[in-house]
Amino acid sequence: MDINLFKTFLTVANCKNITHAAEILNFTQPAITAQIKLIEKEMHAALFERIGGKIYLTPNGKIFMRHANNILLEYNSLKKDIYLSSKKNSSLINIGVSTLCASYLVTPILSPQNEFKNISLEICSNTDSALNGLIQNKFDFIICHTDIKSEKITKIELSKEKMIWTVGKALYLQHNQSLNIFDYPLISFKEGCTYRKKYEHLLPKLPNIIMECSNSESVRDAVLNNIGLSFLPNLLIKDYLNSGQLIELPCQPNTFVTLTLGFFKNKHFSVQEQLFLDLLLKSI
Description:
Elements: H1 3-15, H2 18-25, H3 29-43, E1 48-51, E2 54-57, H4 59-89, E3 93-98, H5 99-109, E4 119-124, H6 127-135, E5 141-144, E6 153-168, H7 169-174, E7 186-189, H8 194-202, E8 209-213, H9 216-224, E9 230-233, H10 234-243, E10 246-249, E11 256-264, H11 271-282
Parallel strand pairs: 3-4, 3-5, 7-8
Antiparallel strand pairs: 1-2, 5-11, 6-9, 6-10, 6-11
């Protein structure tokens, strides 16, 4: 039943006069009468009776009035709650970022966060976790390295990073400046990791693995401590390469990883989401 019918009924019941009710509601008298008849037809009961030029509630009408008041109170409470929730969350942007991206790309890629204070950023263990969060409407956007294989999701390439075999300077000197990666122990990423898949595809076999990590910053720090060599994205280590703390070893062919932004196709963007997306794409 249309919520406005409850409003019409209560106005007539309180006024005890259809003409007065029509003036308050800005309806014609026939329109008010038609609405009352529609309610009575729906309830299979007479709700009003006319006595001496005024209309009064029947016993069923009194029952209906009690429930109608409760329904309107709940309806108005619902509208208020929805309004407050919408106001609170209208500028909230939920982003899922896979661990590999978060470790070195959160700051440069999410620089628009300086403009938007209501960004919720969640670090996901892997791309599948981020993708599931997007599918479950937990995230508005996801950022990951792995190719997103879903026709339902729009994918935008944010950046392409060169992957580099690198070793600490002290270890490099200990091995007589060898450029052969098989002369060094490998600090490997765990099986299934995007970076590991890259070098497993390049090499017929792996160098001797001395330790395994899932976090690229942990791998970088181990390389800086001269524990072994590893395969890392340029953006994560370029400052250390420039300072001479890390040494780049040859890699053929050149290998790259792509940073991808994902969101549902035909997604309706809020004003804040569109502004964030525009700034994000301009920042890369």
